[in-house]
Amino acid sequence: MTLKALLRQHGGITRTSVLIRAGVTRRDLRAAFERDEVLRPRRGWVALPWADPELVTAAGRGLLLSCVSQAARRGLWVLETPDHPHYAPPHPHSHVVGGPGVVHWRAPPTPRAPGLLEDPLENVLVLVAECQPYETALAIVDSALNQSLTSIQALETLPSPRLHDLVRHATPFSDSGIETIFRSRLGWLRLPIRVQTHLSGHRVDVLIGERLIVQVDGKQHSGPQRDADILHDAELRREGYEIIRVTYSLIIHRWEQVQEAVLSAIARGKHLRQAG
């Protein structure tokens, strides 16, 4: 297999030792460097010119992508992309190159194998729990559970009291972190708050008590999906449910108004089955 083919097999970037074990000679490597066919982010690493720049930067600094940065890369729900990347060192005595970003030196629960540029999920979630604000971290944990990337039982075994606290309030049923944030912010209410409950043949985002429904429209909510949601709202109202429809922007930027609308409905008994 050619040098380029091997690199493509490893996502465009890997350690020199991996290539040599696969049969690439140092002469092959020198020739490829001279022809500018490959890059050397750092001694011991080789990359194709089109390789993921975040991975190339991590290799060049002697780090792994981790915490909220790696959560976003794994497709977990993240409220905001961090201004600077979050990293972790391969081991506590690693020599790393300085630069922008946050480096987490916490000892990882899952050992980091040589050659990794992306932290394993268990390490990512522990760092998220200990680095990010509570509701942001809870949304990321919920997202990992919702995607079946881990389980509550598995997370309970990891050595992180902050993560254990999140797990006590986590659920695998939140389809979106915005639902998690909504549920978390009203967690002080002594009422059942359930997410993604099936009613009238469809799922509703949040059900408070017996019949107060809160539907959360995402950033992109238009066209046929919006039409279908309006028809479903009408059907639910005919069946006696109270519906409050809010948006991502309202929850994030005008929470007080959202909370006031929900509390006003509760004050009038709209969450109770017997209410008018």
Bulk shape: elongated
The gyration radius over C-alpha positions equals: 24 Å
Number of helices: 13
Biggest sheet descriptor: 4 strands, mixed
Q: Mean pLDDT, as a whole number?
A: 93
Summarize this structure briefly.
The protein has 276 residues and is an alpha/beta fold. Helices cover 43% and strands 14% of the residues.
Please explain how this structure is put together.
- This protein is α/β, with parallel strands linked by helices.
- Helices cover 43% and strands 14% of the residues.
- It is built from 13 helices and nine strands.
- The strands form three sheets. It has a four-stranded mixed beta sheet with strand order 6-7-8-9, sandwiched between helices. A three-stranded mixed beta sheet has the order 3-4-5.
- It starts with a helix and ends in a 9-residue tail after the last helix.
Secondary structure topology:
Blueprint: H1 3-9, E1 13-15, H2 16-21, H3 26-34, E2 45-47, H4 53-61, E3 64-65, H5 67-73, E4 86-88, E5 102-103, H6 121-131, H7 134-146, H8 152-156, H9 161-168, H10 177-185, E6 193-199, E7 202-208, E8 212-217, H11 223-238, E9 242-247, H12 248-253, H13 255-267
Structural features:
alpha/beta, four-stranded mixed sheet, 13 helices
